[in-house]
Amino acid sequence: MKIPTIIEYSEYQFINYTVLDFKDRKTALNFRNQNKEWMLNKDIIKLEDHEIWIRSLSNDCSTLYYLVFKEGVPFMAIDYHDIDYVKKEAYWGYFFELMGTVPFNFKIK
Questions:
Q1: Gap between the Cα atoms of 64 and 107, Å rounded
Q2: Quick one: CA dihedral 79, 81, 84, 87, positive or negative?
Q3: At what angle do helices 22-34 and 47-57 cross, to 10 degrees?
Q4: DSSP element (H, E) containing 51
Q5: Extents of the domains making up the chain
Q6: Is residue 66 within 8 Å of 14, Cβ to Cβ?
Q7: What span, in angstroms and rounded, lies between the C-alpha atoms of 36 and 30?
Q8: What pLDDT is recorded for position 101?
Q9: What confidence tier does 5 reach under pLDDT thresholds 50, 70, 90?
Q10: DSSP letter at 109?
Q11: What is the pTM of this model?
Q12: Assign residue 57 a region: left if phi > 0, alpha if psi is -120 to 50, beta otherwise?
């Protein structure tokens, strides 16, 4: 099963971490570190460690991470882990950019 690395839906774009450019990988890391108190690992993640982890995602079909953009501006990350393709089940999580630099003006339709 081929999982898309870029998904477009209306004005939203979901880009898999494995194909993000360096600037967007840093953005994803910043979002994660802003939300560290909600993570299992509450440490600040260093850029070098983040880069190694992202490279490891290419070999892990049970985990997907996407940086989500609205009209070209990243505002959140979403992940699916422990994916079971046979049962069509997974756990998922998300975190937002917290510093107030991105306007939250979206609705679920």
A1: 24
A2: negative
A3: 110
A4: helix 47-57
A5: 6-96
A6: yes
A7: 10
A8: 44
A9: very high
A10: -
A11: 0.83
A12: alpha
